[in-house]
Write a structure and sequence with these properties.
mainly alpha; 3-stranded mixed β-sheet; 300 residues; binds zinc ion; single chain; two-stranded antiparallel sheet; 12 helices; globular
């Protein structure tokens, strides 16, 4: 997977894995959102975690269908983005339902006793079937691989901290540093990749950034409402979102921001968190506004 997603970093990552004796271990059928760095360098992940991420990626696609057009429209007309008004639009209800249904399935998958214990949502291909032929779904497939790579890199950094005995005293700082390590591995040598592969640098940057946004947004689903503002071991989700977005240097109206804003608005709506009516100055500004809304709701 590292080879497919970040070939320009393959040697570096493999040598880190080797020198810190990190092992990736698939554990079948544990419930709960499961990906962690356990003792002795083992990075454990449950097969269903990948399934959840895959479903979440499709939810992102629905969110984009549901909100990007409206956001574009109100922005170009200088109107306010008003969620209550948007809900009144004819097709909107169905789009919202599609999104909520997937999120609920992801959560149900969490408590299912075994992977055979629940029904796979209609219309969504299975991850095991490989890369879909449909162009949009194929893009989703690539994003899942990238987001998974991001999560693995995050866990790898935990293993490195442990193996070096250099973990920060503050667990929250360790989490943020693992996020930063993963993002840096994904984003900072794209030029090398582009000159070797011929893929345009800005497109690669956008795709990888979106996969990181997806991973980061997934935390808002994996985290119970009362923990959104952080726990003793995990930083507040809005802080991680802020840090993730803070690393992205793309133009204010890049599709990246539109993707993040659409997904975040859909998530806020699903969690019944108020998103105030507002003018859309830029996609970036709207994305930042979603973080503020999440922060305010988390503090309550
Ligand atoms: Zn972590």
């Amino acid at each position: 997977m590292f080879e497919g997603v970040i070939p320009e970093r393959l040697d570096e990552v493999l040598s880190l894995i080797e020198s810190h004796s990190a092992q990736f271990r698939r554990v079948d059928d544990k419930s709960d959102f499961n990906l962690d760095a356990g003792a002795f360098g083992a990075i454990q992940f449950a097969q269903r975690f990948l399934g959840q991420l895959w479903l979440f990626d499709f939810a992102g696609l629905y969110a984009l269908h549901s909100f990007s057009g409206v956001i574009f429209f109100v922005k170009s007309r200088g109107l306010k983005f008003d969620i209550a008004e948007i809900d009144g639009l004819p097709e909107q209800k169905e789009e919202n339902n599609c999104f909520s249904k997937i999120i609920k399935t992801i959560q149900r998958l969490n408590s299912a006793e075994s992977k055979y214990d629940f029904a796979w949502p209609a219309g969504i291909p299975k991850l095991q079937e490989g890369k879909p032929k449909d162009i949009e779904q194929a893009a989703v497939f690539d994003l899942v691989l990238m987001a998974t790579t991001y999560f693995f890199l995050h866990e790898l950094k935990h293993v490195i901290f442990k193996s070096e005995g250099s973990s920060p005293e503050d667990r929250l700082i360790e989490e943020m540093e693992c996020d930063a390590f993963a993002a840096e591995r994904m984003l900072s040598k794209i030029r090398d990749y582009s000159s070797a592969s011929g893929y345009p640098e800005d497109k690669v940057f956008m795709k990888r950034s979106i996969s990181i946004a997806l991973g980061s947004a997934f935390l808002a689903v994996a985290t119970p409402r009362h923990n959104l503002d952080g726990t003793a071991t995990h930083p507040a989700v809005h802080d991680r979102w802020s840090a993730t977005l803070g690393r992205i240097e793309l133009e204010e109206d890049d599709s990246y921001w539109l993707y993040f804003a659409s997904l975040a608005i859909a998530l806020l709506k699903h969690r019944k968190i108020t998103f105030p009516s507002q003018l859309v100055v830029s996609y970036k500004q709207l994305a930042v506004a979603t973080i503020k809304a999440l922060e305010e709701a988390s503090n309550k």
